[in-house]
Write a structure and sequence with these properties.
A three-stranded antiparallel β-sheet has the order 1-2-3, with helices on one face. The chain folds into two domains: 13-137, no CATH class; 141-281, no CATH class. It has helices at 13-28, 30-42, 52-62, 64-69, 78-95, 100-116, 119-124, 126-131, 140-164, 192-208, 213-244, 247-285; strands spanning 169-172, 175-178, 181-184. By secondary structure, the protein is mainly alpha-helical. The chain is built from twelve helices and three strands.
Length: 290
C-alpha cells in the first residue's frame, strides 16, 4: 500500500536565506522594538502604535491571494536600500538619536521585498508598508515646532467662540482667563494626540471604502481640519463646564472623559461624510433616464 499523504518539499536555499535574514534582522532590532514599546506606553500621542502592526498584518492577510500570484523577480538594487537601512539603524544607535533606527525598519522591509521578491510585491503591499509610519514616533523637536502653533490656534479659536456667546475672556498666548480663572492650553491639549489617532483611523477607513480614489484622498485630507476643529470644541466645552458649573470638575473630570467621547463623535462624522461621498459618486455614475 502507498500513502496518499505527500510530504512537503523542503525549503529552497533562497528561502532559507530569507528566513535567516529575517531572524538576524529581528535580533538586531530588538533594542529598537523595546524603545518603540516604551514610547507607545509613555506617550498618548502614539497609543495607536500598538494597533499598527495588527492593522498591517490584517491587510497583508487580505492581500495574500494576490501575493501568491506575484511572479518572483528579485532586483539587486533592493540591496542598496537594505544597506541604507542598516546605516540608518547604526547611526541612530551610535548617536543615540530618536528616529533613524525606527524609520530604518520600514526601509529595510521595503529593500528586502525588492531584493528577494521584486518591486511588484512592494506595489501590492503599498498601503500596509506606508501605514507602518504611524507606529514611529516623531522626534521631539518636530513635535515642539508643530505643537506650539496648534496650541496658539486652539487657544485663539476657543477665545473667539467664548466671546461669540457672550463670555468675557482674556487671551495671552496659550493662556486663557475666563472670568478671572486662568488656565493654559498645554501641548497635551493642542490636539496632536487626537490628530495622529484620527489620521490613522481615517487612513484605514478611506482605504477600505468603495469611493473613487480622488474622494478617498479628499476624505483622508478632511481628517486634519476635523481633528483641529474637534479639539477647539473640546477646549471650549471644558471652559463652558468650568464657567457654568465648576472649574475643578471641568479640569479634573470632564477634561479626561471629553477626549474619547469627542473622538468617537469625529469618527461618526467621518462616516457621515463618507456616506455623502458615496451618494454623490453613485449619483454621478448612475445613467439619467430621459
Amino acid at each position: 500500500m502507498t500513502s496518499s499523504n505527500k510530504s512537503k518539499a523542503p525549503p529552497t536555499a533562497e528561502n532559507r536565506w530569507i528566513i535567516i535574514a529575517i531572524i538576524l534582522a529581528v535580533a538586531m532590532y530588538l533594542p529598537t522594538f523595546r524603545t518603540l514599546w516604551g514610547k507607545w506606553m509613555q506617550d498618548s500621542q502614539y497609543s495607536l502604535g500598538f494597533l499598527v502592526p495588527l492593522v498591517c498584518a490584517y491587510f497583508v492577510w487580505r492581500k495574500w491571494p494576490e501575493i501568491k500570484r506575484i511572479k518572483r523577480a528579485p532586483a539587486a538594487w533592493g540591496l542598496l536600500l537594505i544597506l541604507f537601512a542598516l546605516t540608518l539603524h547604526i547611526a541612530g544607535v551610535v548617536l543615540d538619536v530618536s528616529g533613524p533606527s525606527e524609520l530604518s525598519i520600514i526601509v529595510l522591509i521595503i529593500g528586502g521585498c525588492i531584493y528577494f521578491f521584486g518591486i511588484n510585491l512592494v506595489k501590492v503591499l503599498a498601503f500596509p508598508l506606508a501605514y507602518m509610519l504611524f507606529m514611529i514616533p516623531v522626534p521631539g523637536g518636530v513635535l515642539d515646532r508643530l505643537g506650539l502653533p496648534m496650541q496658539i490656534l486652539a487657544s485663539a479659536s476657543t477665545a473667539f467662540l467664548l466671546r461669540l456667546i457672550g463670555i468675557e475672556v482674556v487671551r495671552a498666548g496659550i493662556q486663557l482667563s475666563v472670568e478671572g480663572f486662568t488656565f493654559e492650553v498645554a501641548q497635551a491639549c493642542s490636539g496632536m494626540s487626537s490628530l495622529v489617532a484620527l489620521i490613522g483611523v481615517t487612513a484605514v477607513f478611506a482605504y477600505i471604502t468603495n469611493l473613487p480614489t480622488k474622494l478617498k484622498w479628499v476624505l483622508f485630507a478632511l481628517s486634519l481640519p476635523i481633528a483641529l476643529a474637534a479639539n477647539v470644541v473640546r477646549i471650549t466645552s471644558i471652559s463652558l463646564v468650568g464657567y457654568y458649573w465648576d472649574w475643578d470638575v471641568a479640569l479634573q473630570i470632564y477634561h479626561d472623559y471629553s477626549s474619547p467621547l469627542l473622538f468617537m463623535a469625529t469618527v461618526l462624522l467621518l462616516f457621515f461624510i463618507n456616506w455623502g461621498f458615496e451618494w454623490l459618486s453613485i449619483g454621478r455614475t448612475t445613467p439619467q433616464s430621459h
